[in-house]
Batch of 4 targets.
Target 1
Amino acid sequence: MNLVENVLEGDRLALARLLSQVENDTEEGRAALEALFPYTGNAHLIGVTGAPGTGKSSLVNQLARHFRKEKGCRVAVVAVDPSSPFTGGAILGDRVRMRDLAGDPGVFIRSMASRGSLGGLATATAAVTQVFDAAGYEMIFIETVGAGQAEVDVARLAHTTLVVDAPGLGDDIQAIKAGILEIADILVVNKADRPGAEYTERALKGMLELAHPTRRAFLHHGRPMGTSGQEEEPRDAPLWVPPVLRTIATQGEGITELAEAILHHAEHLRASGDWATRERARLQSELDALLQEMLIARFREDVPQARYEEVLSRVFQRALSPWEAVRLLLDGRAS
Ligand SMILES: Nc1nc2c(ncn2[C@@H]2O[C@H](COP(=O)(O)OP(=O)(O)O)[C@@H](O)[C@H]2O)c(=O)[nH]1
Ligand SMILES: [Mg+2]
C-alpha cells in the first residue's frame, strides 16, 4: 500500500505525511499530487481573510464545528497565517471551547509553513488544498492574514471568500482596503459584542457600494453590465450581492446565518455557472504557472548558465535591450 492509497482510504497519519511531502515539494509529493488529481474537484473552498485579530481563526473554528455537527461534512482547515493560534503547537485557538473538534476524525487542521515551498505560498496552499479535496474533505477553509496579493491569490483559489472585519481596530477604512472588499463574497463584522459594530457595518456597506460598481449598476439598472460597458442579456440567476453579517465568534452567535450564507453562495455559483467559471480560471492559472516553470527549466537545460550571465551583463551595460537579449537567448540572434 502506498501513501496515496492510504490517503484515499482515510488514513490520517498518511494524510499528515503526504501534506508535508506536498508542502516541501518533494518528488514523492509531486507524484502523489498527480495520482490524486482525478479525485479532486468536489470540495467547496472557502477563503477567510482580514486584518489580524478580527477573529478569523475563532470564526473558522465555529464554522468547522457547525458544518461538522449540523451538516455532517468533513472539514479541513488550512491556516496560512504565521501568527495564527493554529500554529506553534497549539492545535486550536481556544482549546477548551474546541476540545470536541480536536479529536474528531472528520476534521483536519493544517498550518502552512511559509518557508521552503518552491512555487511560493499560494502554490503550496493550492497543492495542500488538492490533497484535502482528494481525501474527501467537503468543506475546506483557508485562513490568510495581511492585505494585498496574498488575499487576491486566496480569492482565486477559493469558491467563496469571506472578508472579516471587527470594530475597535482603529480606522475601519484603513483596516479593510477597498481592494480586499472587491474579492469579498461575504462580509463579516465579527466582535459584534464590542462597541462600534454598527459603525463598522455601515462603513463596510458604504465601501461595498464603491467596490462593486457593476453590482451597484445591476441594482440600479436591473441588469448586469458587460465589460464593454454594454448591457448583457439578463441571466437566469441574479448577480450575487455580498451580504454583510454580524457575528460573535467567541459566543457562537451568527454562525448559523454565516454558514447558511456560505451554502447559499455555493448554490448561487452553481446556478449561475460561476462555479465552473471559477474552477476553469483556477485550473488555467495553475496550468500556466506549471508551463512557465517547465519552460524555464527546459530553457535552462539548453542554455548554459555562463551564456545566460554573459547576455545579462550585456543588458546591464545597455549593449542589448531585454527584448534583444531574449531573442538572442532563444533564437541565437538579437534581431
Ligand atoms: N469580544 C470578542 N472577542 C473575540 C471575538 N472573536 C474573537 N475574539 C477574540 O479576538 C482575539 C483574536 O481572535 P482570532 O480568532 O485569533 O483572530 P485572527 O487573528 O483574525 O485569527 C482572540 O482573543 C479571540 O478570543 C468576538 O466575537 N468577540
Ligand atoms: Mg488567525
Target 2
Amino acid sequence: MTRIAIAGAGIGGLTAALCLHEQGFRPQVFEAVPEIRPLGVGINVMPHSAEVLHGLGLGPRLDAMAIRTRCIEYRTRFGHLIQSDPRSVEAGFPAPQYSVHRGELQFLLLEAVRERMGQDAVLQDKAVTGYEQGEAGVTVLFADGSRHETDLLIGAEGLRSKLRAQIHPDEGPLNYEGTMMFRGAVEMDQIGDGRTMVIAGNHDVKFVTYPISEPLRQKGRALTNWVAEVRLSSPRHIQDADWTRGATTDYVTPFRDFSMGDMDIARILEATETVTEFPMIDRDPLPFWTDGAVTLLGDAAHPMYPIGANGASQAIIDGRVLADCLAANPGPGGLLAYEEIRRPVTASVVRMNRQGGPEQVLDIADARVSGPEDRIEELITAEELEAVAASYRNVAGFQKKSA
Ligand SMILES: Cc1cc2nc3c(=O)[nH]c(=O)nc-3n(C[C@H](O)[C@H](O)[C@H](O)COP(=O)(O)OP(=O)(O)OC[C@H]3O[C@@H](n4cnc5c(N)ncnc54)[C@H](O)[C@@H]3O)c2cc1C
C-alpha cells in the first residue's frame, strides 16, 4: 500500500486523512504542537465542503455542535438590509452551511481520525522542517532530528508551511491588505432567529457576526462570534501572523456610530473577555504545488483573505479531491491530477477575495447610501446584488441543486 505522510493536523490535514482512509489508505499525520488545543474562534463550512463532511458520516456530530446557518445578511452601517443571501438546505443547497468553533471542528475531525485509524494516526510534537527525495521515496525531516520514510508527503501545515518554503524558497513575505481583524466570541441572548450571519459596514470598517454553538441555540442563547475589521494601514508586506496574538489597538471606537437595531455592536465588543487580532493576509497564487512526491494542501497551498468564509472550506475540498485522485493513481501522478483540479480554482478564490468577494455589495451600498432615511431599494437593484452573489458562488464552487 502506498505510504502517505501528512504534515499538519489542522482542518485540511485531518479531512485529507479521513478521505484517504475512506479510499483504503492509512496516512500518518504529524502535528507540530505537543498537544492539540481547541484554538481559534468561529469559522464557516460552506455548503459544498459540508457535503464532503456529510459524505464522511460526520453530519450528525456537526449538527450537534454547529449552527446550520440560514442566510448571510449584508447591511449598511445605518442598519439597512442590502441583501439576504440564503445558504441553507431549505434554500436548495445540497448540504447546510455550518458556523462552528474552529477548535471544536478540529477536535471533531481529530476524534474521527483516531476512532477510524487508531490513536497513533496523529503524532503530536512532530514539527516537520523539510524533506529529502530520492529513488526510494521521500524522507520527512523533523525538528527533533528524527526522520520518517514515506512514498508521498502532503504539506498541510497552514500559513507557515515549511514544505511550501522548501518547494518555493524565493517566495517573499506575506501580503498584508492593511486591515486588522479583531476577533472574539461572547455568550449572550440570541440575535434574531439565531441562525443568521450579519456582515455590516464597508471595506474599511466592517463588522461580521454569527452564532457558533448549537447547544446554546437550543437554550435560546448564543455563542456570538464576531470579527471587527478596521483598516489600519495601506497594503504592505509583513513577515508573520499569529492567530493567538491579543488585541493591541482600540477596536470599539470605529463601530460606535453603527446602528443595527437588533444588536448593539459596541456592547458586544466590550462584553467579550478575550479578543485577538490577526492581519488580513494572503499570498500570491503559486505556479505549482507539487515537487515529485510532495504536494501542498489548504492554507499551505493557498492562504487567502477570510472573505466569503472560504479558508476552511477550500482546505476540506482539497482533502476530498486529493484522496479521490490518489485512489485513481496512487503516486506522484495522482498528486499532479489533484493539483490540476484544485490550483486554478483556489487561485481564482484568492484573487476574487482581493476584490471583496461577495462582500462587494457592502461597498456598492456604502457609495450610494448616505443616511438612515435613504430607501435602499431605490438605490440598488436586486439583479445587481444577485450578480455579485452568483458570481462568487460560481468561482468558490458552491451551487444550489436547481442552479
Ligand atoms: C491556532 C489556529 C487558530 C486559528 N483560528 C482561526 C479562526 O479563529 N478563524 C479562522 O477563520 N481561521 C482560523 N485559523 C485558520 C484556519 O483554521 C485555516 O485558515 C483553515 O482552516 C485551513 O486549514 P489548514 O488545515 O490549511 O490550516 P490550519 O488549520 O492552520 O492547520 C495547520 C496545522 O498544521 C500545524 N503545523 C504548523 N506547522 C507545522 C509543522 N512544521 N509541522 C507539523 N505541523 C505543523 C498547525 O499547528 C496546525 O495544526 C486558525 C489556525 C490556527 C493554526
Target 3
Amino acid sequence: MADTQDKYYEFRLRTKIIFQSGGSALVAEEAARLGLRRPFIITDRVVLRLGLLDRLTGLEPCGTFPDVPQDSEVSIVERAAALMKERGADGIVALGGGSVIDTAKAVNIVFSLGGRLADHEGVGTLDVPLAPFVALPTTAGTGSEVSQHAMVKDASARLKIPFTSHTLAADTAVLDPALTVSMPPPVTAATGLDAMTHAIEAVFAANASPLTDALAAGAARDIREWLPRAVKNGQDLDARGRMLLAANAAGVAFSNAGVGVVHALAHGCGALRGVPHGVANALLLPHGVRFNRTAAPEKHALLERIFGEDVAGALAALTRACGLPTRLRDANVRPEDLPALAEYGEHDGALIFNPREASREDLLGILQAAF
Ligand SMILES: [Fe+2]
C-alpha cells in the first residue's frame, strides 16, 4: 500500500441497515420510529402480483404507487410525487428492485423540495434533509438502498439523469432474504453480477479507501461463493441472504469509492440496445479488469487473493457458470454500435473515477475485446 501521508479519505453512510429473514414485518415499527404517520408505498406490478406488500405487517399506508417501470423516467417520478401530496403522505416505503428504489429517491426529492425534478440537478443542490424513507430491496444487486445515487431516464433525450447526494440513501434499509426468493435465475444472475461489478470497480476506483476496500473485497468473495447457489436454487434462503448482504456491502463501497470504465460502457449498452444493466456489466467486467490491471497493480493483487492470478478469467467463468451470455454480440449489441458506445462511455460520469484514463480508442478496444 502507498503511504497514507498524502491521502485524503472520506466515507459516509446514513442508513440504518437491518437484516433478518422475515424482517419485512419490522417495517411498521421502523416507520413509526422515523416519525412516519402516513407512509406512502412505491413499488412495481411484479411485487404487487407476488403479494409481497402483505409482508409489511401492521403498516397502514395512505396510498400506493405500483407503476414503476423497468427504467423509470421523469414523468413517472413527478406523477408519484403528486399523488403523495394529494394523499397527505409524510414519507416513503419503497419495495422493489433498483428501478423502484431509484424512483423512490427521485420522488422524495420532488416531494420534499417541490418544483420539477429537473430543478434539482447538479452537485450539492440536494444536501438538505428529505422526508423519511424506508427501502426494502427485492433483488440482490444495485445496493440502491444505501447508495448516494439515483438514475432517472429523461424520456425525451434517451439519457439517464444522475442525482447524487448522501441524503438520497434510505434512513432504514430492511434486508429480508424472503423477499428475493421469487427472482428467476437470469435476474438473480444479472443483478448478482451487477453487485460483483460494484465490488470490483470500487476496489479499483479513484476514491477507494481502506474502508471501501474491506467492504468491496468481502462482497466480491461472498458473491463468488454464493451467487451460483442462488442461481441454481432460488429457494436457498442462506444463499439469498448472503447475496443480499454482499450486494448491500458492495453498494456502500461503490457509493463512496466510485465505479469506473465498466459502468461507463454498460450505461451505453442499456441506453442504445436495452441490454440489462447487470448483463452489460458482466460482459464487460473481465475486460475492464484487464484494462485497469497495470494502472493499479496493488488493487489487482488484492483481488488475486480472492480469485487467483487470473482475476479476469475467474470473473468470466463465474458469468458463464451463472448462465449469462459472455459476449456483447450475444446480448443484442451489433458491430456497428461499438463506435457510438465508445463515444457514450467517454461522456459518462462513471469514467471520472476509473484509475486509468481511457481515451475513446481505449474504450473502443475494450468493447471490441468484449464483442
Ligand atoms: Fe451497477
Target 4
Amino acid sequence: MTTSSPRTVLITGATSGIGQAAAASLAESGWRVLIAARNPRRAQATLSQIRRETRSELVESVSMDLASFDSVREGAAAVLEQAPSLDVLINNAGLTNSERQLTVDGHEMMMQTNHFSHALLTSLLLPRLLESDDARVVNVSSRTYEQAGDFPIDDLRFERRWGAFWPYTVTKLANILFTNELHRRTHEHGLAAFSVHPGVVNTNFQQNMPIGLRVALKIARPLLKTPKRGAEPVVELAASAARRSDAGAYFDLHKRVVPQAHATDRAVAERLWEATNEITGAEWPSS
Ligand SMILES: NC(=O)c1ccc[n+]([C@@H]2O[C@H](COP(=O)([O-])OP(=O)(O)OC[C@H]3O[C@@H](n4cnc5c(N)ncnc54)[C@H](OP(=O)(O)O)[C@@H]3O)[C@@H](O)[C@H]2O)c1
C-alpha cells in the first residue's frame, strides 16, 4: 500500500484570528501547514498551540513581514526551500489603520500589507503551486469592499483622499480585483483562485479601527463569529474538491455571489494588475 504525501498550504497572518484557526483546521485534517509570520515569538507560540491541539508535527513557520517587499522575497525563497511541494496559498493577513502610515518601501501600510505584498508573494510561489495537480490561491477579502466605491487607481498611496476606514475597504476591493485578474491569467495553467468574505469575526483585527467602529463591535461582540467559524469558508475554498469548479469566484461566507459592479470591472482590474507589478516587481509566467 502506498501512502500519498500530505497536501501543503502556506497561510499568511496565521498568528491570530481567522488565519490561525484555518491553520489549525488544515493541520487537523493532515495537511502540512506553513505559517508566514512577522513576529518570531508569536510564530513560536502559534506553532506550539497548533501542535498541542492537533497533535500534528507538520506545522512550521517562515519569517515574513508583509510590510517589506524584501522580507516577502526572502520569505518566499525560504518557502521554496522548505516545501518541495505547495498546493495552496491562503493570502489572509490583513490590518486596518485609522492613521495613514507608510512602509519601508514608501507605500501606504494597509495597501502594501493587504494587497501589494500578497500579489508579490503569489507571483513568487506560482511556479511551485502550478506543479500541484490541485493548485489554489484563496484571497481573504471582506464584504466591506462594498463601501469602497470606484477603485482609486490613480491614488494607490492615498495621498489625495484618506478616510478612517475607507482605505481598508479599498484594499479589500483590491483583493477581489486581483483574484479576478489572477483567475483570467492563470486558470488555463491550472490555478484555481478565489476571494472570500469570512464573516464578522471576533479577532484582534478590530484593535486599530476608528473608535466608533471599535465601540460598535465591542457591543456586538456576543454576535460575532468565533475565529473557528470565520475560518470555515476559507478552509472550504482551500480544501473542498467540490469547490474547485468555482474557480475565479467571490464567496460571501459559503455562498458564491457575483460581486458588485465596481469589483468586476475588468479594465480597472487590469490597471491594478499592471500597477501592482510595477510597484512590487512581480513577474508572472507569460499567458
Ligand atoms: N475579523 C473580521 O471581522 C474580518 C471580516 C472580514 C474580513 N476579514 C479579513 O480576515 C483577515 C484576517 O483577519 P483577522 O480578523 O483574523 O485579524 P487578526 O486577528 O488581526 O489577524 C491578522 C493577522 O495578520 C498578520 N499581519 C498583520 N500585518 C502583518 C504584516 N505586516 N506581516 C505579516 N503578518 C501581518 C497578524 O500578525 P501579528 O500576529 O504579527 O499581528 C495576524 O496574524 C484579514 O485579511 C481581514 O481583512 C476579517
